Amino acid sequence: SSHIDILSLLEVKTEFRLLNYPGSLIGRQHFTIASDESSVEGKDVVIAKNILNRIIPDGTTPLNAHLTKIHEDIFRISPKLLEERQVVSICIATDGLPTDETGYTNERTCEKFVNTLKLF
Questions:
Q1: Could you read off the pLDDT of 35-51 as tens digits, one per residue?
Q2: How far apart are CA 52 and CA 48, in angstroms?
């Protein structure tokens, strides 16, 4: 949670994308800090900390699908990023190896993960 405080203090827009839906009692799967007026009031920081403090890693680890989507999103906005001389930082925190669509880890899934990382 100290990372959230620092990013918010520096007004660094940060998107969090959880690999698995944490459940309606915990919060959203995707959330952002330092992106709009709720950032000024600190609501986004409270929400982010609440979600991250309550989630319990569980389920599959669909890293390849999520990283592919992130790559597509960054590629879509890359002209604007280049024009405004902005950079993107991606931090991956996981409790497991990447899994395939059926929830299994194998050599092919790990190789695909490495190849997906090379896209960046």
A1: 876 566 688 999 999 99
A2: 6
